Amino acid sequence: MVNLMSGDSFHPPVRTLMGPGPSDMNPRVLAAMGRPIIGHLDPAFVGMMDQMKVLLQYAFQTENELTLPVSAPGSAGMETCFVNLVEPGDKVVVCINGVFGQRMKENVERCGATPVVVEDDWGQPVDAQKLDSTLAAHPDARLVAFVHAETSTGACSDVKTLTQVAHAHDCLVIVDSVTGLGGSELRVDDWGVDAIYSGTQKCLSCTPGLSPVSFGPRAVERIQSRKHKVQSWFLDLNLIMGYWGSGGGKRAYHHTAPINALYALHEALVLLHEEGLENAWARHRHHHEALKAGLEAMGLALLVEEPHRLPQLNAVKVPEGVDEAAVRTRLLQRYGLEIGAGLGPLAGRIWRIGLMGFACNAKNVRLCLHALESVLTEMGAPVERGAALPAAERIYGVTA
């Protein structure tokens, strides 16, 4: 039993978060969470909501009116897309190349629809030709669902091409970009994406617990023409839009919004706008290149092939004979550094090293390379000592 003394408070240790999320938060975002709370229907708060929609439209590169943050984590953003767009009896093609494609399939089944699976190896992107062949064999499919940035493997799939294939077969698309938004190129309107969801705790470097979503005109039409009531009251967009309206007009009460978390998201989106979206994409790529150079100089290999790697989520193969969990434990205890473990069939076989948002910087790259080399050397792993940091510095243009 936990012994709680009167007046005890929780004070978390200081960590450097370089796992698959959450990521370190910018001090401005943390400070925003401490601003005075006001009512969720206060005119000032409603004005902030309108600003946030515009900022989210910028982040997604869309003019979709139905763009907003769901008051729950990325998994709820996923459910929002599925419960609003999938009806009982529908056939949905689900592309699975990792954990989160599997979760999409689970959502399809819980909506009373029939999933048809296009499967690729973990660590590979979704194969557009496989998708095309599957859709040709199932002309009654209504939707295609796939993951842009697969957090369990670090693989990036070609959203533009996959969307084109789906549209050629008269299907709408649902895209998971929980780890993609703000870290990798994403152009919702230019690529024709119908529905997309993300999370705030990855490359936006905001608090967990919110899920930005965006729905295009074809998706809105599908929602409005449903034959069945949306199975979730809380996630029914027909109701939510009464609260997340536009133009500062009267709002209908739906739920008490997580006000201070929304302050944080607003600040995180302001920071993204200040940096510039394409600059943010380039920053993630630059620090990934430095990390990759150091890891490879050390003798470690990445799981995903070069053209398909996410810069913000690096899946690193564990050397033969190394206890990957023991390495993570030492990194946390000795350096306050968190990296992630593998999931599913990759459990015990990879580490997942995140370079997300505010945590994507040269200081963290250097810390990670130094700490990982020290721990692996201490454990007798076959790594090249003294090679990692100089290799990273060559990317940074500094003589080591």
Largest sheet: 7 strands, mixed
Task: Characterize the overall form.
Answer: globular
* Percent range for β-strand residues: 5-15%
Mean pLDDT: 95
Strand order of the largest sheet: 2-10-9-8-5-3-4
Summarize the structure.
It contains 14 helices and 14 strands. It is α/β, with parallel strands linked by helices.
Key words describing this protein structure:
single chain, 400 residues, alpha/beta, Aspartate Aminotransferase, domain 2, Aspartate Aminotransferase, domain 1, 7-stranded mixed sheet, 3-stranded antiparallel sheet, globular
Describe the structure.
- The protein is α/β, with parallel strands linked by helices and 400 residues long.
- The chain has two domains: 27-273, Aspartate Aminotransferase, domain 2; 277-396, Aspartate Aminotransferase, domain 1 (Alpha-Beta Complex).
- The protein is 40% helix and 14% strand.
- The protein contains 14 helices and 14 strands.
- The protein has helices at 27-33, 43-60, 74-85, 99-110, 128-137, 159-168, 188-191, 217-224, 237-240, 259-275, 277-298, 324-335, 362-378, 388-396; strands at residues 16-17, 66-70, 91-96, 114-119, 143-147, 149-150, 155-156, 172-176, 195-197, 211-215, 313-317, 337-338, 340-341, 350-354.
- Helix 5 runs parallel beside helix 6 (159-168) and helix 11 runs antiparallel to helix 14 (388-396).
- It starts with 15 loop residues before the first strand and ends with a helix.
- The mean pLDDT is 95.
